[in-house]
Amino acid sequence: MKRFGVRIGGRAAGALLGLLVAAAPAAAQPGRVVGRVTDATGKPVRGASVVLVASDSTTAPARRETTGETGGFDFATVQPGIYLLRASGSGYRERVVRVELAPAEVESVVTRLPLARLADEPRRQRPRPR
Fold this sequence. Notes:
The chain is mainly beta. The protein is built from 1 helix and 7 strands; from the N terminus they run H-E-E-E-E-E-E-E.
């Protein structure tokens, strides 16, 4: 019985290895989640807390950022998957946004925070029926 095979030299082997590495699954390529936190009128919220947590929180720990002057945040090298982005700031109610990140994708998120209702703010009384 004859054996058939191909022998690959040093340069050809290197080129083949390079092609195989380039053809590796894209799922291994991290992405990025960037964005801004604004108030209801669109003005940036400085110093807001932004937390990115995987929907399956056992796969990765939560990541935290604080927004700067422009209300911006940037989570680099994020593995592909489904995440919850929680944004909150002093005087605002928390907002939760679902983010689905594909391999090597940059996902841009703008989150508008509604004003928090003050605890001592009187509530409107409904007239009682007679």
